[in-house]
Amino acid sequence: MAQYRLKVNGTVHTIEADPGMPLLYALRDDLKMDNPHFGCGLSQCGACTVHLDGVATRSCVTEMSKVGNREVTTLTGLGTPEHPHPLQTAYVEEEVPQCGYCLNGWIMTAAAFLKTKKHPTEDEIRDALAGLKCRCGTHTGIVRAVKRAAEKMA
Amino acid sequence: MHAPTKIELSRRELMGTAGALVFAFSVSDPGTVAAQQVMAAPEGGANSALDPTELDSWLAIAPDGKVTVFFGKMDGGQGTDLAMAMIVAEEMDVPLKDVDVVEGDTARTVNQGGASGSTGVRFAGSALRVAGAEARRVLVMKAAEKLGVDASQLTVTDGVVSVAGDPARKISYAELIGGGHFHSKIGWNKQYGNPLALTSPARPKTHDQYKIVGTTQPRLDVKGKVFGTKPWVQDIRVEGMLHGRMVRPPVAGASVASVDESSIAKIPGVQIVRKGDFIGVVAPREWNAIRAARTLKVNWTRTPDPFPDQAKIYDHIRQSPVTKSDKTEEGQVDAAFAGAARVVEAEYEWPFQSHASMGPACALADVRADGVTVWTGTQKPHFAAQGVAGVLGVPVEKVRAIWVAGPGSYGRNDAGDATMDAAVLSQAVGKPVRVQYMRNEGHGWDPKAPASVHRGRAALDKDGNVLALEFWSRGFSRLETNSTEADPGDTLAGMLLGHKGKRTPAFNLPENAYTFSNKRLGWETIAALLPGASPLRTSHMRDPLGPQITFASESFMDEVAYAVGADPVEFRLKYLTEPRDRAAIQAAAEKAGWQPGKAGTRRTQRGNIVTGRGVAYQQRGGTIVAIIADAEVNTRTGEIRVPRVVVAHDCGLIVNPGGLRHVVECNVVQGLSRTIHEEVKFDHRNVTSVDWLTYPIVDIGEAPRVIDVVLLNHPEAISTGAGEATMRPLAAAVNNAIFEATGTRLRRAPLNAARIKASTV
């Protein structure tokens, strides 16, 4: 066991954990931050995505010992009902989710993408989000929502 | 962090006169707050009775006039809860925003069958429509008494009853009953589950009176999901809970010979739970439970290889003895074939498929001497409560199952198995246990949609008219594992603990509306490859057998159209007489811009890309769906894209058109995934599709660019359900488009690049 200082959504926490434990379990089990979801534990689906210093990162394979001083942002850190991120607003307007379990990964990944890419084409959006999984088949809604958010953020 | 504060919620408050189990919650932890929220009774007007003949079991009115609907199914994100709220708001004349829905909690909702067979609006909605109308009738009677006028002189607007022509004389629902009980009876057909129906002297509105039903309204679940404020079952925690993980055999069907407990001695806090071949670990820290399950050394008995060569699975299906069969027959089929000028014949094959829910299943069980609570993602919590009672050996009245949204609900997935595992582990260690499966269990051990073979034969006369159709399906049962967990033998834990389950042999006949004078439709089932706790046990997955059968039957219709040189749309219309069937096909054709012409002539080519357009149509329990799909095939690689799908959808009365479009779109994309990618792989020993690399699904780059949904509303007809119907003809529409593009007929799903390349290049 080792001690780690984790800065999440602006607040610093101290956590005792096995160095090989993925960040996902520190967020969910130790800090009770449920936005990142366990989907595969294999970096294949994206449901566990958080930002590390603004970079979309799969927390299910990011070991505690590798987090370092990077600042963690979760979906709640991205936006709240009072201060929503444009992607969250667009998701609500387009009513994107079905079960919604994958949504964290798509929004966190798209948010990182839209920070660097203004006016993306539909192909660029699809490329940026390639590999993320949605089992319910909400993909066309996702594309609409990301386009809508991109227009607002441009 | 703040020191945890305890809130104690008395189970007596929650369950009326039942047990007195007390739960402890930490208010600083969103997971336990979520647990508390999903358990808590609404303010005032709680439904203490779950007697279906009590109106209070269906509706409650709070002191502020807000209405709570108690819905005995659940919504997996298709908006059925909203549909219930709309139907009740409509009948009661209350604002939709004032209606809340409690769903899938056995202590608070009557068993309406859980999510099942696209019957949410059709059956549960019909019952709640009657309950809403009856509530309005009872309240208007009360108001008549208070206001001293005849009930016939009263109108209701936004939950306020007033005298027609004298609106100052009024009284609100809240004033009449807010926070109290109706204590009023309602008629019940004495059936639980899907067939549950209610009757009352009240007359529900006719469709021309609707103000809410038929309009697009915002879903109830979206904001909570988008902001992460609504819990999934994975997010539920209770004080003192342990984390559990299961240990599954490397060879399906192997038994535990011995367990080397010392192999995990270095991992702190782990307990091993072994009951026969049921083996799991629990630990206070989740990561330690995961490590322990991975590290634990179990010696498994040597067992004969349970599975045949996957390459020969369809031969196995053809050659195995039939366990049960069924058929329907109209006319003189054999005579028609004997006199045919020509016979068209083809066989089609469909693989095992996995629910592969977005997250592997999770459940939390708290088994105590005085009662059991499970938080579960199963679609059928009332039945799961029965199964939990059975596996634990406690009376069902002592078990409360609380449904919390899971990571995807498309039928009998792994959610019920996790529920039973959690219950058995919790009973063994005497503490609440949360079980979350790992990815390889979610894919590898969930019940599978059955693999099958289908044979179509058509007898034609010399002019190309169809004299007779014969269509047979043969495959594994859709109910080898039942679609509910009511019998412990229909779950992994139950089977490992010696429960048998019914293992019902069942398949489906195609719903065939074509007016061929002579018709024989049949099915045959074969035995499971491995009875019991098998990773290839088969059960219901969205539209059970619909994609399989319709892939074959509607591909075959295209083959017959091609054989007689007909237009595939015209050919279908020639043999359909019901106006709604015809209208659906015509609407899809019109929206797609279908160009009349013979089958096999819709090919265009640009470089390596050939393009075709295909049609398919099917009914599902009264709902009619016609689909026209475009396919682009790369002739060099076999890669396929489906850029545009047009769906004409008729499910009778539409409650919420916006919600319905969403449901149809998602069905198209999931259906496309099953059509072009999905196939559970296995070797002689076990399932080898254990993650997203070994069980690919559709990627966002492959999702259609355009999905045009044409909604055909029939407000005069009953709502027949939309959760699954679009899934049914999708694969055939894509297959027929591939044939148009390539000139090669594929007959084995999935229609993936390798298979297309092998057959066309």
CATH homolog superfamily of the largest domain in chain A: Beta-grasp domain
Helicity of chain B, as a percent range: 25-40%
Residue runs with pLDDT of under 50 for 5 or more positions of chain B: 1-24, 41-48
**Per CATH, what is the topology of the largest domain in chain A?**
Ubiquitin-like (UB roll)
- The total of beta strands of chain B comes to 32
Question: Any idea what the CATH architecture of the largest domain in chain A is?
Answer: Roll
**CATH topology group of the largest domain in chain B:** Aldehyde Oxidoreductase, domain 4
| Oligomerization | heterodimer
Rg of chain A, Å, rounded: 15 Å
Taking the sheet with the most strands of chain B, its summary is: 7 strands, mixed
Unreliable residue stretches of chain A: none
Estimate the global geometry of chain A from the Cα principal axes: globular
Q: What is the H level of CATH, i.e. the homologous superfamily of the largest domain in chain B?
A: Aldehyde oxidase/xanthine dehydrogenase, molybdopterin binding domain
Estimated share of beta-strand residues of chain A: 15-25%
Report, as a whole number of angstroms, the end-to-end distance of chain A: 45 Å
The CATH class of the largest domain in chain B, by name, is Alpha Beta
**Number of contiguous helices of chain A:** 6
Provide a quick synopsis of the model.
The complex is a heterodimer of chains A (154) and B (761). Chain A has 154 residues and is an alpha+beta fold.
